[in-house]
Amino acid sequence: MSIICGSDLSAASGGALEVAVALAAQRGDREVVLVHIVAPELGVEAAREPALEDAQNQLDAQAKQYAKAPVVVRTQLVVGPAAETLVGLAETEHTELIVISARSTSSSLLRLGTTTSKVIARSTVPVLVIRDPAPW
């Protein structure tokens, strides 16, 4: 089985990836699927292709940091509504856990971001929300 880690390419989602990799290694999982979802209105325009390529490069750079980890970090760039797409991927990939940051910015430790709240509400698999990866 694998763990899905949602990424908005922020530093906070990098912390979520750190936790996902640590958990996967501890559980003996083979891989972590690092997913970045692009809004449909951005993904369909031909003029946005450089932006999609840039997003894929950033996603690959996040994954490359774990090249020597005991688990494989596989990247996936998907076009769709963020929360629904992430939850749907968790079901189709038969994952046992979604790891996601609490929010993109650290402006408030008391609130969850909109996408995180929606993922929690809609997911049929457990969701681990990361505020601070340091304890891991």
Write the layout of secondary structure elements.
Blueprint: E1 2-6, H1 11-27, E2 31-38, H2 40-43, H3 49-64, E3 72-79, H4 82-92, E4 97-101, H5 114-122, E5 127-130
Parallel strand pairs: 1-2, 1-4, 2-3, 4-5
Helix pairs in contact: 4-5
Verbal overview:
This protein is 42% helix and 22% strand. By secondary structure, the protein is an alpha/beta fold. Strands 3-2-1-4-5 form a five-stranded parallel beta sheet, sandwiched between helices. α4 (82-92) packs parallel to α5. The longest helix has 17 residues, at 11-27. The protein is globular. The two termini are 21 Å apart.
Number of strands: 5
Rg, nearest Å: 14 Å
From the N-terminal CA to the C-terminal CA, the straight-line distance is: 21 Å
Output mean pLDDT.
88
* Structure classification: alpha/beta
The proportion of residues in beta strands is 15-25%
**Biggest β-sheet description:** 5 strands, parallel
3D shape: globular
Tell me the series of helices and strands, N- to C-terminal. EHEHHEHEHE
Helical fraction equals 40-55%
Strand order of the largest sheet: 3-2-1-4-5
Parts with pLDDT < 50 across at least 5 consecutive residues: none
By DSSP (H or I, 4+ residues per run), the number of helices equals 5
Question: Quick summary of this structure?
Answer:
The protein has helices at residues 11-27, 40-43, 49-64, 82-92, 114-122; strands spanning 2-6, 31-38, 72-79, 97-101, 127-130. With 136 residues, it is an alpha/beta fold.
